[in-house]
């Protein structure tokens, strides 16, 4: 239902994928989160997977709608995103070495 609402309410950007492939990929991410943190509720981990998996591709004009849909589906759930600090440090170093702003 969430992906159907995204397809209907968000812009028709070419890079958006709200089909079965995207659902499967997001569920793989959610499964990895559950295996890594089994004590966190499945609902919270599913919300994190939906947010973290899709947020990077959401254009600025759609952020408010996307966030609103997540908040409607998972009211009161506020789980921090899963971060790989070691990987982020590598990206920052590579960006700086290439004279890019990390």
Q: Topology of this structure?
A:
Elements lengths: L1 H8 L10 H17 L5 H13 L8 H11 L11 H13 L5
Helix pairs in contact: 1-4, 2-3
Verbal overview:
This protein is mainly α and 102 residues long. The protein has one domain (2-97): Dynein motor, AAA1 domain, small subdomain (Helicase, Ruva Protein, domain 3). 61% of the residues lie in helices and 0% in strands. It is built from five helices and no strands. α1 (2-9) runs antiparallel to α4 (63-73) and α2 (20-36) packs across α3. The protein is globular. The N and C termini lie far apart (36 Å). The model has no long low-confidence stretch (mean pLDDT 92).
TL;DR of this structure?
With 102 residues, the chain is mainly α. It has helices spanning 2-9, 20-36, 42-54, 63-73, 85-97. The longest helix has 17 residues, at 20-36.
Q: In terms of structural class, how would the helical and strand content be classed?
A: mainly alpha
The coarse silhouette is globular
CATH-defined superfamily: Dynein motor, AAA1 domain, small subdomain
* Count of strand segments: 0
**CATH class categorisation:** Mainly Alpha
Largest sheet: none
Average of the residue pLDDT scores: 92
Q: Give the low-confidence spans.
A: none
Helix-strand pattern: HHHHH
State the helical fraction. Answer: 55-70%
Strand content: under 5%
Radius of gyration: 15 Å
Give the count of helical stretches: 5
Q: Based on the coordinates given, report the CATH architecture.
A: Orthogonal Bundle
- Number of spatially distinct domains: 1
Distance between the termini: 36 Å
User: Which topology does CATH recognise?
Assistant: Helicase, Ruva Protein, domain 3
């Amino acid at each position: 239902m969430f992906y159907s609402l995204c397809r209907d309410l968000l812009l028709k950007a070419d890079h958006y994928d709200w089909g079965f492939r995207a659902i499967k990929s997001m569920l793989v991410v959610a499964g990895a989160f559950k295996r890594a943190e089994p004590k966190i509720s499945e609902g919270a981990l599913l919300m994190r997977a939906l947010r973290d998996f899709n947020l990077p591709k959401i254009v600025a004009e759609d952020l408010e709608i996307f966030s609103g849909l997540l908040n409607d589906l998972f009211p009161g759930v506020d789980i921090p995103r899963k971060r790989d600090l070691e990987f982020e440090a590598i990206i920052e170093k590579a960006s700086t070495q290439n004279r890019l702003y990390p």
